[in-house]
Amino acid sequence: MSTSPLYDAVLLDRDGTLVEDVPYNGDPEKVRPLPGVREALDRLRAAGLRLGVVTNQSGLARGYFTAAQMHAVHARIEELLGPFDDWQVCPHDDEDRCPCRKPAPGMVHAAARALGTDPRRCVLVGDIGRDVTAALAAGATGMLVPTPVTRPEEVAAAPHVARDLPAAVTEILRRQNALRPTTPRRDRAGTVLVVRSDSAGDVLVTGPAIRAVAAGARKVVLLCGPRGRAAADLLPGVDELIEWRLPWIDGDPQPVDPDDMGRLTDRLTRVGADEAIIFTSFHQSALPLALLLRIAGVPRISAVSDDYPGSLLDVRHRVPVGVPEPERALSLAAAAGFTLADHDQPVLRLRDDAVTDTDGGDYVVVHPGASVPARACPPQRCADIVAALTAAGHRVLVTGGPGERELTARVAAAGGEDLGGRTDLAGLAGIIAGARCLVVGNTGPAHLAAAVGTPVVSLFAPTVPYGQWGPYRVPAVRLGDAGAPCRDTRAARCPVPDHPCLAGVDPAQVVDAVRLLAPPPG
């Protein structure tokens, strides 16, 4: 089994990914491996990763070939490409509505069990959208290697795209190696100041990296902003909190006040930190705070910086575009010499005592608001979704913050129960933890769901990349137009009239997504 902190196994689609796609092939002589596949698979084997195949083979149900013929094809594939540790085959057609045929996640779950691991520690590589959907619905990582038959909308929606299987393998190995410290620490660090100044969701996705630091430090002090304070209170591994607004990070910044910066520098000096790690998003700069930390006397500072830092940083780390934000932060922690404890996993997590009890019952949560307006599904469409879920027999709870009561009342009027403004963040975590599923945009509660293990129907506006900001390592289905004109604009307010990327979501798709992620008992 792999010693990687990230993956144990790689699952692969068969036709179009490993071998040329010959429709309904039952003839071993027609097996043709794609270029570079054998060498790529051997790289995975050498890294200690186990390999499985997950393949839809409806030709069995249609009578185009026999099971014996299919096994002969698989034997030929192994003769040419080397052994696989597991084969999962769905013999059904779409009309059978089985739980194993991709895009359903059944084969991913079965392969993970057979390989002695968890879907979250698997990556699935395939050539069409069904492969990626099955991976995400199981909580696994999905990578797309497009072919001429891959539809453009499938490429746009995929969280990670590689030109071919060898390129996908290179990225898989790069990502797992990035979480290993290049220079492991011999002794525990003393007091480490960690910084994540932004919204609740940003703080939550930094949680695994903060736990990694805590595993190798005697004391962890977290500097966060007012919008992230409630989330910071829920994180394990934090010994002390400092709340301070940083005007170069805040989305609604006030003018820089020299006196305020002086007070912040004095406060940082009193921490007496032996070192500091500044966590940022890919579009933010760590250098202004690094300057204050230098003035405060912090002797060692680590951060991600594409800009030349001069003498402001001791560890200048760089991360490729597209890496999930939790892994981006974990790779910085590793560059600074910290890694997760052996018993820990690279997943979002809350303190064991942080989640309050739920009211029980069987329900779906719809959270219509978002901290950034461009990422919120239009209220009327959210109301339509509540109506559709209610008509499908679901009890629906509608949640929102104190400033969203009017919104939640409007959405809940379609058949849900209005909980707008009735909970703090810990209370919301408890409600989400008890839900069958959460329907939400790209906002903090999506990451809260990931932290408590609740599946997410992600109404994801493509203003930022899904691969970086989608719900991390939790079963999810992405809905919305991934190729909309607002794609990658990072717009705070929708630049396209009528918000088409989310206004076009069919409520029936949401009902189907909930059924896929949380099928009824039995």
From TrEMBL:
Name of the protein this chain belongs to: D,D-heptose 1,7-bisphosphate phosphatase
Pfam families, A to Z: Glyco_transf_9 (PF01075), Hydrolase_like (PF13242)
Principal cellular location given in the protein's record: cytoplasm
A Gene Ontology molecular function term of the record: glycosyltransferase activity
Localization per Swiss-Prot or TrEMBL: Cytoplasm
Family of the protein in this entry: Belongs to the GmhB family.
GO terms classed as biological process: carbohydrate metabolic process
Keywords from the UniProt entry: Carbohydrate metabolism, Cytoplasm, Hydrolase, Metal-binding
The UniProt record lists the keyword Metal-binding: yes
One GO CC annotation: cytoplasm
Domain of life assignment: Bacteria
InterPro entries: Glyco_trans_9, HAD-like_sf, HAD-SF_hydro_IIIA, HAD_sf, Heptose_bisP_phosphatase, Histidinol-phos
